[in-house]
Design brief:
Order of helices and strands: HHH
Largest sheet: none
Strand content: under 5%
Helix content: 40-55%
Number of helices: 3
Radius of gyration: 15 Å
Number of strands: 0
Oligomer: single chain
Distance between the termini: 38 Å
């Protein structure tokens, strides 16, 4: 049985805005390896988003702990639950 591919939607027409990024080839290879390592083989974009949010919250908690707590709670919301992976520390 052939797996049906999702229709590609250009970034500017997606429900939530996207921005394009360039990454060095060796870093992209590392991200693909991480994707293979984590359960469920998540997309590279989900790994990047998770790493950015975790680091941002870590720094923000040093500068403004209250705001970091609020943002951490916001990311537990239904809208974001599929965007952020539960990666081990």
């Amino acid at each position: 049985m052939e797996k049906k591919r999702k229709k590609y939607i250009v970034p500017m027409r997606r429900k939530r805005p996207w921005a394009s990024m360039s990454v060095r080839a060796e870093h992209h290879v590392m991200l693909r390896e991480l994707s293979k390592y984590y359960k469920g083989n998540p997309p590279v974009t989900k790994i990047i988003g998770t790493l950015i949010v975790k680091e941002f919250l870590r720094i923000l908690s040093q500068v403004d702990p209250d705001k970091a707590t609020q943002l951490r709670e916001a990311y537990k919301d239904e809208r974001h639950v599929n965007d952020i992976l539960d990666l081990p520390n």
